[in-house]
Specification:
The protein is about 20% helix and about 25% strand. The protein is α/β, with parallel strands linked by helices. The longest helix is centred in the first third of the chain and has 18 residues.
């Protein structure tokens, strides 16, 4: 499978556009997040006992600003809640309510049962919004929910999106669907879907299972495929997978589509150095971060591993500044009419190039 990398160059203009995202950086979206969190455990706390799943924990932010969006997460075949439980504290620490759950029959519930379990778990979160003694009383946005799952749970997440088009996002963790009983229409839906797979997954191999989910989801649906280098079947079972990039991409996906924030989409466009295959059809041009296009200069290639070439009207020497997403200056200099900037010494990551009063976003990678 060929790698396909679709990249949109962003032109960041105006103090207002930059200010609303100034606190968003790679550091701010890693594990753990900025918020304290609590947990409600079925059997200990008086939360709903959903009939379509067995046992659950609700992780919730304590000091974030409501209303909160939510996500339900289910494990795979013969799996248990603890297999995917690391996602709960991670999402809650970033301001998203997460319910992790077990299944009624771990070694008998197929993806369709896990789809129902995911949707049932969302009902449990919703009930906390009306339970007077709940720490989530009156703090939930009841129309902003996502689903996620591992293996058969990932297949179930895709089926859940087909069952409930009001969902805002899907995150599949090495998803599995029965290839003998699978129907193409099972994953035809409009809910944006992020698919993680492992390069060395010997249970739900990347090409037959993982990429099938990407290819089978309509082109009109926003989607992203991320194959983790040397990853096995559990490569995306927590936010620390792929050297922490599973957390960065999963959170950016939820912040973009579930929370509808304009500040995270750009992180999804940069191909991770931990990806052995990466493909997406998304664009971020609708982000309110982009105020307007300025075409005083064109930057290429983007991403780049060694140099940036600028096509510009030469008016003599111009001073330039390169800053990281965190605002720290990484390099400054003067560019002449040749329009070439050496970036070999920069660490791999996300940067803004300023020339004069104009800014453009680019990604430095180790190798193209």
């Amino acid at each position: 499978m060929n790698k396909i990398f679709l990249f949109t160059i962003f032109f960041i203009c105006g103090i207002h556009g930059i200010a609303q995202c100034e606190n968003v950086s790679l550091e701010s979206i890693t594990n753990p997040g900025p918020f304290d969190f609590g947990v409600l455990v079925e059997g200990i706390d008086p939360i709903r006992n959903g009939p379509d799943y067995n046992g659950a924990s609700i992780y919730y932010p304590i000091d974030a600003v409501p209303p909160y969006a939510g996500i339900s997460i289910v494990p795979g075949y013969c799996g248990v809640e603890t297999d995917i439980q690391d996602w709960g504290p991670f999402y809650a620490s970033h301001g998203i309510v997460a319910i992790t759950l077990g299944t009624n029959n771990p070694c008998a519930d197929w993806p369709d049962s896990r789809a129902l379990a995911l949707l049932d778990a969302i009902e449990t979160i919703k009930e906390e919004n009306t339970r007077i003694d709940s720490p989530l009383f009156g703090k939930l946005s009841e129309d902003r929910f996502a689903v996620s799952g591992w293996s058969m749970g990932g297949g179930g997440a895709q089926l859940a999106a087909s069952l409930d088009p009001t969902l805002k996002a899907v995150i599949c963790l090495c998803p599995w669907l029965d290839l003998n009983g699978f129907q193409a229409e099972d994953i035809i839906h409009d809910v944006p879907v992020l698919i993680f797979t492992g390069q060395n997954d010997d249970i739900a191999n990347s090409e037959e299972y993982g990429y099938m989910h990407y290819e089978g989801t309509p082109e009109t649906t926003d989607k992203l495929f991320f194959e983790i280098i040397n990853g096995g079947h559990a490569a995306a079972n927590g936010p620390s997978g792929a050297n922490g990039d599973t957390g960065i991409y999963a959170l950016s996906w939820l912040k973009t589509y579930l929370s509808e924030s304009p500040c995270y989409c750009e992180f999804l466009l940069a191909e991770s150095s931990a990806a052995s295959a990466f493909e997406t059809n998304i664009e971020c041009a609708s982000s309110s971060l982009i105020q307007e296009s300025i075409k005083d200069f064109i930057l290429h290639p983007n991403p780049s591993s060694d140099v940036l070439n600028l096509d510009l009207d030469c008016l003599g020497e111009l001073r330039y500044t390169i800053k990281g997403i965190n605002g720290i200056i990484a390099k400054t200099g003067v560019i002449g009419c040749n329009g070439v900037i050496d970036i070999q010494q920069l660490d791999s990551g996300h940067y803004f190039l300023s020339v004069g009063s104009d800014n453009q976003y680019f990604v430095k990678v180790k190798h193209l």
